[in-house]
Amino acid sequence: MKRGREIVGIVGKRKPDSVCKTSQRFDRMVNKKNKVKGNKDIGLSVTSRNKEVNLAQSETNQAMTNEQLIEQLTSANPDAVVKQGSQYPEITVAHDKLHAFMQNIKSDSSLAFDYLVCETGVDYPEFIQVVYHLESTSHRHFMVVKANTENRETATLDTVSDIWPTAEFHECEIYDLLGIRFNNHPNLRRYFLDDTWGHPLRKDFHDDIHVVER
Amino acid sequence: MGITSKKEFEKNDFPVLDSYEGGSIILTQLDALVNWARSNSVWPLTFGTRCCAIEFMAVGASRHDMARFGYEVARATPRQADMIIISGSINYKMAPVLKRLYDQIADPKYVIAMGACAVSGGPFYYNSYSIVKGADHVIPVDIYVPGCPPRPEALLYAFLQLQKKIKREKNFKKQLKK
Amino acid sequence: MKSFFNYIAEIFSGVWTLLTGMKVTAKYFFTPWKNVTQQYPENRDTLVMYDRFRGEVIMPHNENNEHKCTGCGLCENACPNGSIEIISKSIVNEEGKKKRIIDQHIYHLGMCTFCNLCVRACPSDAIVMGQKFEHAHWDRSTFTKVLNQPGSKIMEGIKE
Amino acid sequence: MAEFSEKYIITDEIKADEYLVNIGPQHPSTHGVLRLLTRLEGEIVHNVEPHIGYIHSGIEKMTEALSYPQIVHLTDRMDYLSAHMNNEAVCLCVENALQVEVPERVKYIRTIFDELQRLASHQLWWCASGMDLGALTAFFYGLRDREDILDIFEETCGARLTLNYSVPGGVMFDIHPNFQKSVKAFITKFRKKLPEYDKLLTDNIIFQNRTKGVGVLSKEDAIAFGVTGPTGRASGFSCDVRKHHPYSAYPYIKFDEKLGTDGDSFMRWKVRMDEMWESMNIIEQLIDNIPEGDFAVKMKGVIKLPEGEFYQRVESARGEFGVYIVSDGKKNPYRVKFRSPGFSNLFTINHIAKGWKIADLVAIMATFDLVIPDIDR
Fold first, then answer.
1. With an 8 Å Cβ cutoff, are D208 and A18 in contact?
2. Could you tell me the domains of chain D?
3. pLDDT for res A79
4. What does the pLDDT look like over D327-345, one tens digit per residue?
5. Predicted confidence (pLDDT) per residue in D302-322, tens digit
6. Nearest CA in chain C to D141
């Protein structure tokens, strides 16, 4: 009994102000002032920003164009490969420098890529490529970072789950479907399939039992 | 119900597999009574996997009220249910779960395979490595409803078919034979 | 003391808001003429689907038992999941030329996802989407249909 | 598999007072076949480990053997509640890659359908999560009004859920002659229904006490975990793709991005309710101004994308939906990745449900608005 109470006290407590708010609400209701009109509710704070403010803000925050972005990144990492003429700024990093590079672009305040949009893998004949789509929520940059594994058989790469927590789950998915092992990953497990399965998104995946080819 | 006089409904009739030999008038009437009661109180299991589950919910809601057939009590536990509506695809990880759910339902139990995925694998028949090509590879299916997803009326039509199937069962014959 | 009053106030406000919600349900309870429920099996005679509703793929035949399908196989290619299979045969026509015509246009209703891609792909409008949706059956094999009727021919003037 | 297997679940040792409860795969509150392995002490949740894959269908592998119009049809089956947004994402990606400019009419039609689909999705979320939290009336009322939107869909697209309305280069049919009339009729009707929804649930003190302050997700965590959509916006994370990377007809219209402050379950609820109002505003701006013109541009019979990589983001009903196509110049893509919003959203659940009661876990799950095939693909 005692232990249960303790735990409730620590974690299960609701905000005390909810009680006050409801009592205020009740007073108003008794006075028949509370009439719900559309979405204008009382005591709730959903703010909305209109488009003009948003555009102005993003313009002031837009620290650099795509060319400047590429320039800054290549000056800091001279051996990184930049692809020309692609949809977004695209940079390929060596697999052993990936973690330091990622740490840098997140912590650097002029870059501040704090939102990992998408992480995925692509199987090529010689290597497996991991593609990171990154966005900065303050500057609204968008960038693609790529890293290739050394080979296909023992495909390993450093994890970035300590930089962006969401990468932990995307990396599990990549491990499941493409078979890339991520070093230092906290909990690398297969999400979709069992251990008995191969890695289906690899191009040499072949399954006579489950797949009906067309 | 006016439906029984319709030609199309009569067309796809169930085969009478077993018939009484002479002299079972009382048992036949009893059967009819029991089956009438059973066919109007089939409780489905809340089991939804893919888009068909949304149409199953729509069947349960106001526009297409399945309470009119006595099917409205969707149970969350298989022990209280009579029927599974497999609404969506079943993959190899889910198949043992479906089998277990089916085993937990008390007899008599019925299965409706709703939608193309449950009938034959549907859009995932070719080149998909993890979808079972039809739910009847896992458990026996009584009624198949094609559609992707079938509209609610199509599922109601399947309920009518299932009612017809239940009404043709011979409960007491089996008991007597033992 | 204040917390005690808050407690009482919360109970009353809870009951009050519950009654507000029940007013809404009561409004619908006492207006049964605003009935939304469709009496499905009883209204089968009057139930009409929308024109574009996709219930099944059908091949319209005219009164002479003629269809428009040339057996080109475009619908078979367009189908994402192989619901359509076309079996064609070659015949020799009057001029002595070899010609491939359709033997069987097989349609797997149980696999079809009603995406309309086959109808879009068809160059001669031979197949259209039908309105029938009551397909539920106890036997899966009845879903495999042959769309061209037995003994049917291709309509005159349809380009290959 | 379904068997209890230690190697899958136990990441660190279970303490003496703890026990494991398996929620799912078949459970009404998980909105599909999600399995949550919860470690409890009494009623207090110590750890939640989501186990997915019970509806995994390998869509990404299947797309490697399909042509682009066929991929569009397959995306309906992922997030079936925002089917049109998924279709549109693939279509936009293909059009961007081919540098095809679609007519203005197509942009307007697509945007109206986006918002109608968002309304339908949020309505279904409202009724399903109301049912999770013990309000069965919400289920009937939400689905009753949703049927009106489905009728509009059926009139124009011919299907209720899996529309397959967008095709590369435009839309499949022109809008039905009755379309504008029925959309306007629906909006006037629905504007009266939404206050009723508020009266039924949102204003109810019992409901508010169950959701207020429960499962708080801070803005920093929302960004770090990549939580998008109304769930992320409730935490104050401005992540609306319609605003920041406008596509289709969104650049032409004025609308607000609803941002919450608290990031609790109630705020997530509130943001979605407000988005419904905003969606109706967007539709009203567009519905009278649909320009005349073609409903599709003529595309080649076999669509081949140029070699390269293309990424397209759209705002689906539950967050940012992305399509990443790697093409090698053939008619089939080399690799397709769908960035599903639910995948990132779901795995936050361990972070925010820790320490709450198991009944609060249901409230958190309900306000996250998960669609499991969207997560599993």
1. yes
2. 59-190+216-342 (1.10.645.10)
3. 75
4. 988 889 999 999 999 898 8
5. 888 888 889 999 999 888 999
6. C25
Tens-digit pLDDT profile for residues C146-158 = 888 888 888 877 7
What's the CA gap between D86 and D271, in Å, rounded?
22
Q: Is A134 exposed, middle or buried (0-12, 13-18, 19+ CB in 10 A)?
A: buried
Distance (Å, whole) CA C126 – CA C64? 15
Name the residue type at position D36: L
Interface of C with D in 41-100 (CB under 8 A): 50, 52-54, 78, 80
Rounded distance, CA C10 to CA D38, Å? 32
Chains near A with 3+ CB pairs less than 8 A apart are B, C, D
From the list B92, B125, B130, the residue facing A212 with the nearest CB is B125
How many other CB atoms sit within 10 Å of the CB of residue A81?
Answer: 13
Provide the shortest C-alpha distance from residue B12 to chain A (in Å). Answer: 31
The whole-number pLDDT of residue B176 equals 54
For chain D, the maximum distance between any two Cα atoms, rounded to a whole number of angstroms, is 70
Q: Tell me if C140 and B158 make a contact (CB, 8 A cut-off).
A: no
For A26, the closest chain C residue by CA position comes to C13
Q: Are D99 and D343 in contact (CB under 8 A)?
A: no
Is the pLDDT reported for residue A6 higher than 50? no
- Separation of alpha carbons C160 and C99, rounded Å: 10
Chain D's closest residue to C12, CA to CA, is D205
Tell whether A42 is within 8 A of chain C (Cβ): no
Q: How far apart are CA D173 and CA D89, in angstroms?
A: 18
For chain B, what is the domain count?
1
Two structure tokens written together for B2: 């006016």
Does the pLDDT of residue D188 top 90, yes or no? yes
Distance from CA of D6 to the nearest CA of C (A): 39
Per residue in A62-101, pLDDT (tens digit) is 556 777 777 777 777 777 777 777 778 888 888 888 888 8
Q: Is A115 helix (H, G, I), strand (E, B) or coil?
A: strand
Q: What is the domain-level CATH number for residue B114?
A: 3.40.50.12280
Contact A157, A183 (CB under 8 A): yes
- Per-residue model confidence (pLDDT) at position B105: 92
A40-54, A88-102, B6-20, D143-157: the lowest-pLDDT one: A40-54
Partners for D (CB, 8 Å, 3+ pairs)? A, B, C
Is D199–C116 a contact, with Cβ atoms under 8 angstroms apart?
no
CA-based nearest distance B174→chain C, Å = 22
**Which ipTM value was assigned to this complex?**
0.86
DSSP secondary structure string, D155-199? HHHS-SS----EETTEESSPPPTTHHHHHHHHHHHHHHHHHHHII
CATH fold group of domain A64-183: Beta Polymerase; domain 2 (3.30.460)
CA–CA gap between residue A13 and residue D357 (Å, rounded): 10
The residue in chain C having the minimum alpha-carbon distance to the alpha carbon of residue A32 is C16
Whether B163 maps to a domain, the answer reads yes
